[in-house]
Amino acid sequence: MLGSPLFPLSPVTTASPSSSRPSAHQRKVMAAKDLVENTISENKIAIFSKSYCPYCRRAKALLTSKFPNVSTKILELDEMSEGSEIQDYLAEKTGQRTVPNIFINQKHVGGCDAVVALDNSGKLNSLVNAE
Question: N or C: which end of the chain has fewer CB within 10 A?
């Protein structure tokens, strides 16, 4: 009878040969993290966006028209299979879950309102042009 001294109830653990390898989801999360970090480090301006978002459109228009010759990477998360994993990682990294999520010279500046405020205060040019 189960639970008797002859057959004690104890958790059964079995080592699976694949247990040390990341799952498909873990690999997708790691790939999203790498993509975010590479995008930020390899571009002066990195914009994590969604194609249908009016705030994203405004921020993208401002940055791309004002700085046409600056290395800018725009990732449309709603058009990427790993978009939700990227957005989750950005939320973990920045505390910001919303888009646009913008980095300038590897510094997180926030979203559309933050970029517009930097532009209105005259600080956006110096931030983008900082070496």
Answer: C
For the chain, which domains are there? Answer: 24-129 (3.40.30.10)
Cis bond upstream, residue 100 (ω within 30): yes
Q: What angle do CA 66, 99, 48 make, to 5 degrees?
A: 65
Residue with token string 């913008």:
102
Token digits of residue 45: 């301006």
Q: Residue 40 is inside which H or E element, if any?
A: helix 24-42
Q: Tell me: the pLDDT tens digits for 39-90? A: 999 999 999 999 999 999 999 999 999 999 999 999 999 999 999 999 999 9
